[in-house]
Amino acid sequence: MNYATSAPAAVDQDYLDRIDAWWRAANYLSVGQIYLLDNPLLREPLLPEHIKPRLLGHWGTTPGLNFIYAHLNRAIMERDLDTIYVMGPGHGGPGPVAAAWLEGTYTETYPDITQDAEGMRRLFRQFSFPGGIPSHVAPETPGSIHEGGELGYALSHAYGAAFDNPDLIVAAVVGDGEAETGPLAASWQSNKFVNPARDGTVLPILHLNGYKIANPTVLARISPEELDHLLRGFGHTPFYVEGDDPEQMHQDFARALDTCFDEIDEIKRRARNGDTERPRWPMIVLRSPKGWTGPKVVDGKQVEGTWRAHQVPFSQARENDEHRAILEQWLRSYRPEELFDDAGAPVPSVAELHPSGSRRMSANPHANGGLLIKDLVMPDFRRYEVPVASPGVSTAESTRALGVLLRDVMSGNMDSFRVFSPDENNSNRLDAVLDVTNRAWNATTIDGDDHLAPEGRVMEILSEHTIQGWLEGYLLTGRHGFFSCYEAFIHIVDSMFNQHAKWLTTANDIPWRRPIASLNYLLTSHVWRQDHNGFSHQDPGFIDHVVNKKSDVVRVYLPPDANTLLSVADHCLRSRQYVNVIVAGKQPELQFLTMEQAIEHCTSGLGVWEWASTDAGEEPDVVMACAGDVPTLETLAAVSILRAALPDLRIRVVNVVDLMRLQDRRAHPHGMSDDEFDALFTTDKPVVFAYHGYPSLIHRLTYRRAGHGNLHVHGYREEGTTTTPFDMCVLNELDRFHLAIDVIDRVPRLRDVSGHVRQDLTEALVRHSAYIRENGQDLPEIRGWTWDEGDRERPLPADPPT
Amino acid sequence: MNYATSAPAAVDQDYLDRIDAWWRAANYLSVGQIYLLDNPLLREPLLPEHIKPRLLGHWGTTPGLNFIYAHLNRAIMERDLDTIYVMGPGHGGPGPVAAAWLEGTYTETYPDITQDAEGMRRLFRQFSFPGGIPSHVAPETPGSIHEGGELGYALSHAYGAAFDNPDLIVAAVVGDGEAETGPLAASWQSNKFVNPARDGTVLPILHLNGYKIANPTVLARISPEELDHLLRGFGHTPFYVEGDDPEQMHQDFARALDTCFDEIDEIKRRARNGDTERPRWPMIVLRSPKGWTGPKVVDGKQVEGTWRAHQVPFSQARENDEHRAILEQWLRSYRPEELFDDAGAPVPSVAELHPSGSRRMSANPHANGGLLIKDLVMPDFRRYEVPVASPGVSTAESTRALGVLLRDVMSGNMDSFRVFSPDENNSNRLDAVLDVTNRAWNATTIDGDDHLAPEGRVMEILSEHTIQGWLEGYLLTGRHGFFSCYEAFIHIVDSMFNQHAKWLTTANDIPWRRPIASLNYLLTSHVWRQDHNGFSHQDPGFIDHVVNKKSDVVRVYLPPDANTLLSVADHCLRSRQYVNVIVAGKQPELQFLTMEQAIEHCTSGLGVWEWASTDAGEEPDVVMACAGDVPTLETLAAVSILRAALPDLRIRVVNVVDLMRLQDRRAHPHGMSDDEFDALFTTDKPVVFAYHGYPSLIHRLTYRRAGHGNLHVHGYREEGTTTTPFDMCVLNELDRFHLAIDVIDRVPRLRDVSGHVRQDLTEALVRHSAYIRENGQDLPEIRGWTWDEGDRERPLPADPPT
């Protein structure tokens, strides 16, 4: 339990004194950001008007973050390390901003924040100030890939950054508050998925600050033995640094870091020499007081070392002379006169105490992944065409076709592309990728194991949180990825999606942040095909969640078959700075479009399927729209029924791939003009719309359109259980019979003539449902349904459909 | 690492033979459910038509679940334990169904499923069959509180069930797949929140089945030492049972269980004698083959003990003679002729091997909480009235007023009510509850700790997942609770909400499931008041997520002030079988309604605020609607501006508390008729609607209304950062100036006369924004704004507003 057993020689005390000065400077600058509007160097007495009117920010964790930063800098310089710093307790935003300013990066990035008194004044003023920078670590913070708002993702982000970056060190501070979250607790297991020979190193630093907002933390209040068991159980060798005396803590932390980096060197050396045993990676436990070096007591109450130090230790510095005196005393305790010269710049011994250029953690290009990203080497997706001689006759598993494309994307990009899935890669029919790589796995293997290897590039753990965090870290450091997931369970990462989308939105307004690869989701095993799993696995609402975010970062695609899926996936994999959501089935299903047709259809995002329509280019009686594979199938089957029963009916079939096309141009860049929309959907004819998800979304996207009152949407109504695929449609009235009945009910001129057809359809519904309940499967005529060209009046058009 | 050191004497072998017979019977019935349509007792040769056409269900985990069930029954009988069984691997749904049938509960619950051959045939047929029961553990499963679809919540549900049930044992099986999830990983820490003297006992059983869908599990592939460290690190004393030989495994598991229950007895005894040291609760690690006792090899490939046993071990039993022969051999290997009598009932030695009555885990009333629930002893919420002499003049922190009510709900229900929060109880201003109880905490305490005690009833851990799981478990076992959370981070449990709402929806159709208390969310620290935390903490979309679920289980309230919040909270706390979402601010804010007015307003759910309107009961020029505290404030301020500038303008102010009132009656039971809606909102006048969340939701709820085309919604547009409260409104165009300008732009008769007013308002916006950016705070005239009655033409109406 003590690093001392293998401790290297003590670090030179003079050097540690300089580190202490740097730390004091960073702490001074942190407190200044929280409290000061002006008088940054305290060269005048501190007056009320120097204090911010609203005191925002989190002091409690900041001195610890700064302490670690200072020591990492020593190691980086001594060992020429390539290091980024992931700060789980990102509420301590003033810390990395202070460090970046001391390292010069801040001024390089934001030239108006100069390294002098005026720059320091601006640095302080802008923090948590309207028009300034956020209070947490954020995209605005140089050197960060990790927003400090929602807790839980420090380790998974860190591992994502480390994959395929063999020489990178990712120092990851885990706050003891964050450590209580589920996503963080799960992500400790990430070390079973690291290949020491080909991946970088994550150095976890568990910061036992002791308190959350108002409570002690669990890990700070279990016995040292229990904690040591836990961390060894996570597969680490922990080293402990505990105390509050800076001098001792500097010595101890420096030695602990040296020990860790020595061990890491040894692990990497062994791995490169072929040692395949999973290493027990070193980590550090830093136990230091919350709000360390801050005011000990305020208003008679202990602050340092308690939850009272979590945010601002006292809030009346502007109004209350005593508080203001405490603030001044606190700031002066860092001895700013020793740290900053007459101009307000850091004195040389402080200013020089950091690595140079891109070795500075605040300037490491890995933390601005768009600087490093390379285009994927993409095969021509047209080569993966699923042959379609005629629409709606042959079947294929669409995602299986995609798997072959992904296999070749993988083999062309074996150092910058990975696929991610919560134990569903093969279930989702993407197993072709295992032809060229394995699943990442550095835990024990036994005979009979299937495609497990430390160098595997298929990332599977049964934690959507860990998967999402890994992928985000991988993308933010300039690589590419693809996440396949059961549709219902992607909600597990709703809040992580939120944070990533917000990161992208903010980054779009930051010129120095370069665009990164899009986060690509394939949602499959979707709501309509949960034959095995039933109601708990049915939820198509992630789309609804996604479209609440800024339209310039979200895209939603519902390709109805394999070739459209391939075209969409190619587009998404090449794109930047989006979250792309693709929803597609994995079950054998009818194929409709040739590759040439698919490309044209996907390029326009939606369009009339003339081969399925019976309006012959005239004004239709009804528009039957569809989005999603199952709704498309049922729509075509309904058309087929109606065509046979009511040959004069003029039906226009519109298929939608790119859902955002339905919105108007003001709401989304992909949106159609009203003229385009009206030309497709008419302004006065009924539109029976079969949609993959909750019907309200289609209304939400189209409520401004002239013909919106004529739109009747069928979709998931939260009805379901373990039953047959067709019965699922019936339960939710998305099936061909309900759709056809709806058409009859909506087309005025049919009302008097089609009573018997309506009756037949209703009887068919009853007959099918009875058969399903009796036989446990769908009638052969449903299961075997194909699009019958013979019924058509006109031949297939020579031109591809538009 | 071995329980043997303290092992009690071996269990009688004859008894274990009977347990083995019971286990074989449960396994036989499980396989039958997955595969058989008919010929349940194999009294004829197995023919294709006896096999289900679609083979659904998960065999892999089922024999382990049955094994544990059999052994728990022995302990329950020997020790007269009150026990429920939480099966994390709930995909193994056939297991508990088989057990319930053997125990007689199934027939008591579903009388058509008799304990004979015909009943067995029906039992088999209904499983995963259209019109039958789901493939997973579900509300339909007697004895369950835990849906087996989405993994991760076994332990948190178990602890929720154990709180305040001092004599209850909750045996909780954690699958090694589930153990990889974030929520499960976090929930191990729950043992720091259990009071051994007053709470029940959770006995975790980690089932190392070895495989997930397609991969080995992490915990099965770390070294035994690492696993032992991990479990001790979680605060447990683990006992290990490992092997595949049933005879040995029966002996070992029986002894391990005896050891655990002896230790639990000792822990409870010590605790009741005042020992306050946190116990290291025993737990069991069961390492057994996946698909244990199933076919070893199929088609030349190993099945038992591999991922191939996860679902159905082979799928062609109907079509393929060889597979069918394997099935028959497998079923016969359980020797059904020894287990079931001529009639098909279990033979006495099997039939009697279970506890009686409500001691049967399948019939324990704790697993049907509505049987046990008692109404809360509720104080009269009117007593907590915040005095309001005149609307919009005095301020209060609304949630602080609620805290006082919750305090007294707590003190009246000290064994059946708890409040839950992820470390935000005090931040959310509910600290009054700490006057009568403490925070639950059984880890180390030190001087200066604030309200921590093992018997505390304020449940705080920094894991929304654990909080939600505890609360669900607490409610499902018949108690009451209240969850307060930062609004943005409730998305962390989106998927858990989904599953709970689905449980309620399904339970509503199951007569024997009695209604339980509603799950009450207070979402505060909401999007408009993230002054500290900025963009990452801004997301009002949980409401959008919630309304996708069945309307008969979801309710959404946006009380604008303290008295409306109290009225709404009283209603929610008394309700059953809903998820209630209350969104309310915690910051000081203007108060509008007296308690009497608030009750009337909340009872109707929405209504005209006549005191704020200027239409004097006539046809208005414009309706200004508002929902949420900040939108209400800005709407009233806009009315005030417009009233001064355009005294002839007839404004009707409509405030919405119960959001579901906006829907039509077909869509939600609270929905208004079109006539009611039209009478409030008109069919032809512009409606400027200030809404708390994403504007699209209001369109979604109202798109069918006649006047929908006139509705102009202001809400959160995903714009924000760390800035002032008013600036947040301006960024999203929800502020008084934007609202007033929108009124001017929408009311036709103002277009020609109000150019100067519009100009003034635009200039005011510029002036305010400049002030904010210069001074870091809002102009005093914004911060200090109150509703000025003096401007009104008419006195406050004598009658309360409707």
TrEMBL record, chains A, B:
Residues 11-371 form the Xylulose 5-phosphate/Fructose 6-phosphate phosphoketolase N-terminal domain. It comes from the Bacteria. Pfam families: XFP (PF03894), XFP_C (PF09363), XFP_N (PF09364). It is an enzyme of class 4 (lyase). The keyword Lyase applies. Its EC number is 4.1.2.-. Belongs to the XFP family. This is Probable phosphoketolase. The lineage of its organism: Bacteria, Bacillati, Actinomycetota, Actinomycetes, Micrococcales.
